[in-house]
Description:
Blueprint: H1 2-11, E1 14-15, E2 57-58, H2 61-94, H3 96-109, H4 125-174, H5 179-210, E3 216-219, H6 220-230, H7 232-237, E4 241-246, E5 251-254, H8 256-272, E6 279-286, E7 290-296, H9 303-308, H10 330-340, E8 344-349, E9 355-361
Amino acid sequence: MVAVIYTGMRFVPTYDFRDTVVVWDAEKPGSAPRTGESFPEADAEPGIVPGTPVDGSIRSKEDVWNTVLWWSAGGLLLVTAIGLTVGWRLSHRLLAPLGVISRAAAKAADGQLQYRINAEGPADELKRLADTFDTMLARLEESFTAHQRFAANASHELLTPLATTRAVLQIATADPTGEEFAELAPMLVETNERNITIVKALLELAAADHAPFDPEPVDLAALATAAAAERSARATAAGLRLRADTGPGCAVHGSTTLLRQLLLNLLDNALAYNEPGGSVRLTVLRENGIVVEVENTGPRLDDLVAQRLFEPFYRQRSRVTSDRSGHGLGLAIVRSVVHAHHGTVTARANPDGGLTVRAELPPAPG
């Protein structure tokens, strides 16, 4: 506004003040008019410089204020137009990511969770919002994919023993003498026990996820020592070395039943997926929180497989080649128990083979 008004007032009007008095004395040669001032005409009054009126000229203070008013109004309109134009273009450019985010949300509502915004530019609020939205979509996609795998694996896990049971019953029914039933009865009992084991594991998983419990101080070191003693006979029978290392001050606030299940599942997984002459080490110590770590020897595996071991019904070996000694819910229950106690759990592959599962739980107050 200042630039518009100054430029307009400085260079546009023609200043022709008729009442301007020129101080001039004809008797003194040194008092000639200044450069740019016209000499008075012969018939003009002495001391007055006559002017020729032209269009747009300023002759009085009233003309000055009128010109300032018009140039102020024109400058206001010009600056407003420029401001609206620049503001519209700038806001359109700044808010463009919101349109992309809106389209991504619409695609996610239709089930297309693989779409990503991949925003570029400075790390402002909109880019952070877009990156957060991409992270949310990635987690949702991973969660839905895991649920789909869970449904497929659970269906396969339950369908196989049920199909076996049906085949046994059909064979036994087709034999009028009943001789086949005596041979098939143990297989039927084993299949039924496997179904019961799977259902119990699913109930344990649901209890770890949703069952309320009254938290109480639990000495996790003493609980780990008891769990290791309980699984020592199984480790000896498998030719494995089991060792438990515990430290002081390892009390947590939680459920004794769920935490005991956590330790037993970790030891069972380490014993089941090991190698002859291998070892299992259970460590409970206090760092920033209470750390429970189970390290075992075994076959080599990559980190992607290690992270997927927490998915329900997922096995390192396929169902066809495995001995079907487990049901694939052990580490899934471990993760649910840790989350129920507001902790974190991770798994990493050891360089020489085997797995290390590390759970961190908040310590008990005091």
